[in-house]
Amino acid sequence: AVAISQDIQNQPHQEFLIYYQPILALSNMQIVGLEALIRWQHPERGLISPTQFIPLAEETGLIVPIGDWIMRNACLQLKSWHQKFPKAKDITISVNLSPKQLAQKDVLEKCLNILQQTQLSPEHLKIELTESSIMENPNSALTILNQMRQVGIKIYIDDFGTGYSSLAYLHKFPFDGLKIDRSFVNNIHTNTNGMGILQAIIALAKSVKAHIVAEGIESLAQLNYLQDLLSEDGDGQGFFLFRPLDVKAIEAIFQSI
Ligand code: G
Ligand code: G
Ligand code: MN
Ligand code: NA
User: Which stretches make up the EAL domain (predicted)?
Assistant: First the structure.
């Protein structure tokens, strides 16, 4: 862990890669968005998963420059895809924002700079935040989220349902959508209460008029079940649809549609 931490410090970003996982409209199975997911291509250790270095980057504060790099590159990439593939012009980019990034005073200013420099419209940027990162400093999060939404950036709550405070903050925080944690999708076949719990979470999300993204769709049965529950305006993401893919693979998809 210490070695990885020193390595993150020393590498000048060329070893980071962004993978993109398609997000589909459940009604017609068209790609409507991409989630940017970082990977670290280490010269000796190979491809390192973000679960192994994001927590370290959080602790050391390095997540801030790394996160800025991801946001800038993901926005730049999407803009270039909009221009290169006319059929991709409405596709959005979802970027995970870590708690440390959200706590930066200039987080909005940075987003606005990136949007301006890349000429991407704010409506095409979706920020994903976890409940716990909002709860670290609810007052400042409230201010920042309101400001982001005012300029047109979309706010999504990631891993929804896994935080302790779901119900308490739902009416209080401004957001556009909820990403239902993959554990709830997985549980529909393994847990006797799984279907009931998923239905309750979806009812809750609908009651606050949130756009819904179901994560972790790993089978046809899960896909069909979710299509029944929320086809009209829900989205889906998961290995059964697409894995996170590199730039080349995404371009091959855009070329074929
Ligand atoms: O892509 P993968 O399933 O391996 O990601 C594992 C975890 O790392 C997920 O919780 C995901 O949200 C997080 N993660 C992936 N990319 C980023 C990123 O660019 N920024 C932050 N903060 N977290 C990320
Ligand atoms: O925490 P967050 O939702 O950002 O995590 C995104 C991560 O979830 C990505 O790293 C991606 O690799 C992973 N992921 C995406 N779809 C699936 C899936 O169907 N099953 C599993 N187990 N993981 C998935
Ligand atoms: Mn996410
Ligand atoms: Na998630």
Answer: 1-257
Q: Could you tell me the pTM of the whole model?
A: 0.95
Give every residue of the chain whose pLDDT is below 70, as ranges.
1-6, 8-13, 164-166
Buried b (16+ CB within 10 A) or exposed e, 176-185: bbbbbbbbbb
| Ligand 2 center from residue 216 Cα (angstroms) | 6
With the most atoms of ligand 2 within 8 angstroms of its CB, the residue from 21, 23, 162 to mutate is 21
Question: What does each C-alpha distance from 209 to 23, 107, 204, 212 come to in angstroms?
Answer: 20, 26, 9, 9
Q: For the chain, give me the number of helices (H) and strands (E)?
A: 12, 9
Atom of ligand 1 nearest to the CA of 98: 22
φ/ψ of 16, rounded to 5, equals -85, 145
Tens of pLDDT, residue by residue over 61-84, are: 999 999 999 999 999 999 999 999
**Cα-Cα-Cα-Cα dihedral of 207, 103, 154, 178, to 10°?**
-30
Give the closest residue to 156 by CA, choosing from 96, 107, 201: 96
What interface predicted TM-score (ipTM) does this complex get? 0.96
What is the distance of C-alpha 196 from the center of its chain? 25
Left, alpha or beta for 96 (phi > 0: left; psi -120 to 50: alpha)? beta
